[in-house]
Amino acid sequence: MSDVKTYVAGHKSPDTDSICSAISFANLLTQMGTPATPVCAGEANKETTYILNHFGFEHPQIVKNWEEFAPEGGNLYLTDHNESKQIIDGYKSMNMCGVVDHHRIGDFETDGPVFMRLEPVGCSNTIITKLYMENNQEIPKAIAGLMLSAIISDTVLFRSPTCTETDKEMAHKLAEIAGVDIESYGLDMLKAGADISDLTNDDIVRTDMKEFSEAGKTISIGQISVMDTTDVLAKQGELVQALEALRSANNYDASYIMITNILDESTTLLFSGDVEAVVTKAFEKEVKDNGVFLPNTMSRKKQIVPPILGAMK
């Protein structure tokens, strides 16, 4: 057996699918004869912490830089991302082995051929569930709970426009294995993640933040989901200031935060940077105080990123 260690990692500013997909895919690799260790790029958010505790998992080890964490190198699989700016720093020192993802293909490059499984579904764990089934691998009860939780999170309990029939099908199969009632558990899980009472303004604007590049410019887009946006939007001006501090510190051309109302299925998009014209062009909505209200909008991947990047061209 090779002494080279194999790791599975999700993206920076990890969300539920990022962490749970690293755990579930590492388990699949291990069951199939390649011992693998899940890691993550940062602390789990409240929703993910609730899920890990509920199903009895320890928080994966946090890795900020691969060259420092694994100076001897190792094999690396990515889940829930493929764009270079979202990968843990120092990844070029690792032997890239594969990607399982449900996002657009960015600027990802490898030195050699790798395993790639990308599908236009609502969650990476939907794809991983299919991989278990295709390889005739048993899905442990707790792993099924993690994967179900990720699907509920990414599709916002099937409310997101990114949700597909495949997501629903896999979720119901996983719920049966995990012994979970999807609706009641899903609402409890989402409520746990929606509690932002102890978050600072900086915490809020950095929630689930991802970087994107277009036309030589780099932007950040975060997202926080709540049951009621009244309190958080009461301090819109402070959040815009926090966004500007974030933008300036990282030399972004713009920084955005999606404040998504789970129950109303709407989003207020706040921004910093000289991009009012971009926002107006992207959404054709009135911009007020560095913000725009977007009804029937919950998905960054499908409803926010494409129009913004398109307006930047």
Automatic annotation (TrEMBL):
Enzyme Commission number(s) of this protein: 3.6.1.1
Molecular function in Gene Ontology: inorganic diphosphate phosphatase activity; metal ion binding
Cofactor requirement: Mn(2+)
Signal peptide segment: none
Catalytic reaction list: diphosphate + H2O = 2 phosphate + H(+)
Top-rank taxon: Bacteria
Pfam families in UniProt: DHH, DHHA2
Keywords recorded for this protein, A-Z: Hydrolase, Manganese, Metal-binding
Location of the DHHA2 domain: 186-312
Record carries keyword Phosphoprotein: no
Keyword Metal-binding among record annotations: yes
Annotated InterPro entries: DDH_dom (IPR001667), DHH_sf (IPR038763), DHHA2 (IPR004097), DHHA2_dom_sf (IPR038222)
A cellular component term, taken from the record's GO annotations: cytoplasm
NCBIfam families per the UniProt record, alphabetical: PRK05427.1 (NF003877)
PANTHER family in the cross-refs: BNIP - RELATED (PTHR12112), MANGANESE-DEPENDENT INORGANIC PYROPHOSPHATASE-RELATED (PTHR12112:SF22)
The protein's name in its UniProt record: inorganic diphosphatase
Biological source species: Veillonella rogosae
Lineage, top ranks: Bacteria, Bacillati, Bacillota, Negativicutes, Veillonellales
